[in-house]
Amino acid sequence: MPQVTSSSRPFGAVLTAMVTPMREDGSVDVDAGVRLARWLVDRGNDGLVLNGTTGEAPTTHAPEKADLVRAVVEAVGDRAFVVAGAGSNDTAHAVRMAEQAAAAGAHGLLVVSPYYSRPSQEGLARHMEAVADSTDLPVMLYDIPGRAGVRIAPDTMARLAEHPRIVAVKDATGDPVGAARGIIRTSLAWYSGDDTLYLPMLSLGAVGIVS
Length: 211
Hints:
Blueprint: E1 14-17, H1 30-42, E2 47-50, H2 62-76, E3 81-85, H3 91-103, E4 108-112, H4 121-133, E5 139-143, H5 145-148, H6 154-161, E6 166-171, H7 176-185, E7 189-192, H8 198-203, E8 208-210
Parallel strand pairs: 1-2, 1-8, 2-3, 3-4, 4-5, 5-6, 6-7, 7-8
């Protein structure tokens, strides 16, 4: 795993949500993924997020996700953090994804709010805690109400911040004021999930971006 140079930036400052290259038959092109990962790291990325929305998570199978994580970790070594998506609206499925990512060598997990089903805040918190409990990897929460259908409420965020492995948030709420309140209230490292709001978020205390 890359060395964490600052506790305030557990995954570095600049991360790319990497696309997953596909072959014409729809299968994952792992070799192309490795080339892309190296290209991104060579150009200064501190971390790569694999198997997220941009990474075709809904359309790739578990073995393909694991193969990509394993290959990218091997390719970039300790030069960048490899964060694997473990997002599902099924808690048991999300836990299996997290365990698979850990077994493949991922350095961290990105865990999105359970989407479509719009759980209560208690249900959302328990989902996140179950995934965080399933491995020893550090977790970045992903708050994206526009796609998930539910926002992580301030009290829920404060509760989740108490978990020893939940260390960061990717904030795609489009609400810098809400982000500022979360930054003040919790010890979580805040990452902008919106390129257009990166500079305002930095001015409010965010530590980086997942672009």
